[in-house]
Write a structure and sequence with these properties.
The chain has 263 residues and is α/β, with parallel strands linked by helices. It has helices spanning 3-6, 57-64, 87-96, 113-122, 128-141, 157-168, 187-204, 215-219; strands spanning 11-23, 30-42, 46-50, 72-77, 80-81, 98-102, 175-179, 207-211, 223-228, 231-233. It contains eight helices and ten strands. The longest helix has 18 residues, at 187-204.
């Protein structure tokens, strides 16, 4: 675990009354994507966000990743108030504090696996030699060391997602955000990928927030938050896997759970 991560304690994420509205150009009717989200995620926790398409899951993830800003409310991530940042500060936050894993990988097709991972470090002016060495170490940690010079088109879907995970971890983020990370994978490969995400995040002390439609993935998280019509609601949690830990699902009022103890 890095020194920067070891210094974190308490809640990695605090959302207070977060709302997000979208308004079509020239339109008068606002679409309310998020409606008063209150959420706390403990440092080092694993949290699943579930809900139907259009419920607000991805909007919530975009706000945590500073890809969008709340219309109202307050969003703090590892003590940083996203609403108080200017664009340059937000760019640094996106590069340093959070790492992203997407369903469709979003690798640059003309770059090799190593170059895709290196690219994530350029925003922080990491020296070239260090970028290359770190990228190779990360690719080795996800089982892609022997494929580091291959471009995405020569890799399977599972291999591309492994490269995407290495890229997400390139700057040692405090928070890992994953949007349907297993959605484009078969069940066996998806299981391998989610295990990899959790293992590497735990080794680094990173907090994981993932959006998923998969009950199997949700069962492996400490807490499940369900979103309906832009609000966190309380629903029955997925049944625990045989012999596995019970998934905790908090009430709507306090989506303030602390992570279950992991063995």
């Amino acid at each position: 675990m890095s020194e920067r991560r070891a210094s974190l304690s308490g809640d990695a994420i605090v959302l207070e009354g977060v709302e997000k509205e979208y308004r079509a150009r020239g339109g008068t009717q606002a679409v309310r994507a998020l409606r008063g989200i209150d959420l706390r995620v403990p440092s080092g926790g694993r949290v699943a966000i579930m809900g139907r398409s259009g419920s607000g899951k991805t909007t919530l993830l975009q706000i945590l990743g500073a890809l969008d800003v709340p219309t109202r409310g307050r969003a703090l991530v590892v003590g940083e108030d996203l609403g108080a940042m200017n664009e340059r500060q937000l760019q640094t936050y996106r590069a340093r504090t959070v790492g992203f894993v997407f369903q469709n990988f979003q690798l640059i097709p003309i770059l090799s696996a190593r170059e895709n991972v290196e690219l994530a470090m350029e925003a922080l002016d990491v020296p070239t030699g260090e970028r290359r060495a770190r990228a190779l170490r990360l690719l080795d940690s996800v089982g892609m060391g022997a494929r580091s010079f291959h471009r995405p088109g020569k890799l399977s879907s599972g291999e591309q997602q492994r490269v995407a995970i290495a890229r997400a971890l390139a700057n040692d983020p405090a928070v890992l955000l994953a949007d349907e990370p297993t959605g484009s994978l078969d069940s066996e490969t998806g299981e391998e990928v989610i295990s990899l995400i959790f293992r590497l995040a735990e080794e680094r002390g990173s907090t994981v927030v993932l959006v998923t439609h998969s009950d199997e993935v949700a069962r492996r998280c400490d807490v499940v938050h369900r979103i309906r019509d832009g609000r966190i609601v309380s629903d029955p949690p997925p049944s625990p896997a045989p012999g596995g830990p019970t998934v905790r699902e908090p009430s709507r009022e306090a989506s303030l759970g602390t992570p279950a103890r992991r063995n």
